[in-house]
Backbone:
């Protein structure tokens, strides 16, 4: 699991910057939660596709 975390390219800081460019303000703490959720959902989707 540790190796998977090292491969993450979307960081909370990057997310905040991307959203600021679009006019949306969020805190780093909120961005951390969003990034965690995105990676969780992507892992879930991959697992479901593998089981098909």
Residues:
């Amino acid at each position: 699991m540790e190796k998977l975390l090292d491969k993450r390219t979307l960081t909370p800081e990057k997310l905040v910057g991307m959203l600021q460019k679009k006019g949306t303000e969020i805190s780093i703490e909120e961005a951390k939660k969003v990034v965690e959720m995105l990676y969780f959902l992507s892992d879930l989707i991959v697992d479901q596709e593998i089981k098909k």
